[in-house]
Amino acid sequence: MKTEKIGDASFETWSVDEVATAFDANEVVLIDVRTPQEYMFEHIEGALLMPMAFFNGDKLPGQSDKRIVFHCGSGVRSERVARAAIAAGVTQIAHLDGGFAAWKSAKKPYIGTNMATGAPQATTPE
Prior knowledge:
Layout: E1 2-6, E2 9-14, H1 16-24, E3 28-32, H2 36-41, E4 48-49, E5 67-71, H3 76-87, E6 92-96, H4 99-105, E7 110-113, E8 120-123
C-alpha cells in the first residue's frame, strides 16, 4: 500500500490483493464510483455504488468499523473521488490501484452479464 499525506489526511493506494484480502475479511467497504450502466454490466460482488457524478464527500459514513476503499474502471475516477473526500474533511481514505481492470487482470471474481440472457452471473476467471 502506498500512502500519501495530504495535510492531516492519509490518502492510500491499495493493490488488488490488499483490497481482496481486506474485503474478504469484511474489513473494508468497497465503493464503486463508475456509472450505473458500468456497474450493471459488471461489478465486484458486494461493492456499493456511488457514481462520481453524484459524489458528496460530506455524506460519507464514518470509518470506525470499516475503512472505505473506492474503485472505478482504471483508478483515475476513484483517485479523484478519494481526493474530494479528503477535501470534504475525511482524514483517511483509500482507492484501488488500477481499478476494476486490474481486478479482472488479477483474475478476481466478479459479477458479469450473461450475454445470451442479459442476466447477471458470477464470473470466476481462470
